[in-house]
Design goal:
Length: 232
């Protein structure tokens, strides 16, 4: 089971669980809809993975700890106040899951993404048709992070933390040559959003066709488009 639970304005909390297993929860903006969801589906969390220390990803941690004081919360050093286990690279092993940690700094310096059973939880590093703002100013680090994600198999299921897809597609339409792939995706996602369905997850195969920040194959191009997107 893979579910994006809407939180705050446009965040998602991802909940992933293999059949008959307890769940992994990615980021905790708040817990208002998370707790009822877990109860409804009879799911217990066995780990929380924090991608980075922005408030819209961690503000729900204290309330979560009150409900589940013994569930480990993994995150990078910048999340030290909220995480119970600090990680930076390598692997996390929980009772049911092997989780690969992928360093994806640039949005924040220590931003992490997590790969579990071909599901990529990439926080604010990679969005559908877009990427996170480079708050660190280190464009090279962000570019290298995205190249690292791009090297994952096409079949990778990509689970970003925000519903930004339509705005990102509008920007992609303005800079990419591949207008028809972007246009098709705009039509599809507009229909989904009219029905209040999430536009996510996406796949690495699709993103390679519609995401300017994966298509940019050199740093100057990446910087040009990222700065243009900030003004878009
Ligand atoms: Zn952020």
């Amino acid at each position: 089971m893979l579910t994006p639970i809407p939180a705050l304005n446009d965040n998602y909390i991802w909940v992933y669980a293999r059949e008959n297993c307890s769940a992994i929860v990615i980021d905790l903006p708040e817990i208002n809809r998370l707790i009822p969801f877990l109860q409804q589906h009879n799911l217990l969390p066995e780990a929380v993975l924090l991608t980075h220390n922005h408030v819209d990803h961690v503000a729900g941690v204290p309330a979560f700890k009150q409900h589940f004081p013994n569930v480990p919360i993994y995150g990078p050093k910048e999340c030290a106040v909220n995480a119970t286990h600090i990680v930076h690279t390598g692997e996390i092993r929980t009772p049911h899951y092997h989780i690969q940690i992928i360093p994806t700094g640039g949005h924040t310096e220590q931003h992490l993404s997590y790969l579990v059973d071909e599901h990529l939880f990439c926080g604010d590093a990679l969005f559908s048709a877009g990427c996170g703002r480079v708050f660190t100013g280190d464009y090279q680090q962000m570019f290298e992070s995205l190249q690292r994600l791009k090297s994952l198999p096409d079949s990778t299921i990509v689970c970003p933390a925000h519903e930004y897809t339509l705005a990102n597609l509008a920007f992609a339409q303005s800079v990419l040559n591949n207008k028809s792939a972007v246009k098709n995706q705009q039509i599809l996602i507009t229909q989904q959003r009219e029905k209040k369905q999430p536009s996510l997850p996406t796949t690495m195969a699709l993103e390679k066709h519609i995401n300017p920040f994966l298509i940019a194959d050199n740093l100057p191009q990446f910087i040009e488009w990222r700065k243009a997107k900030d003004r878009f």
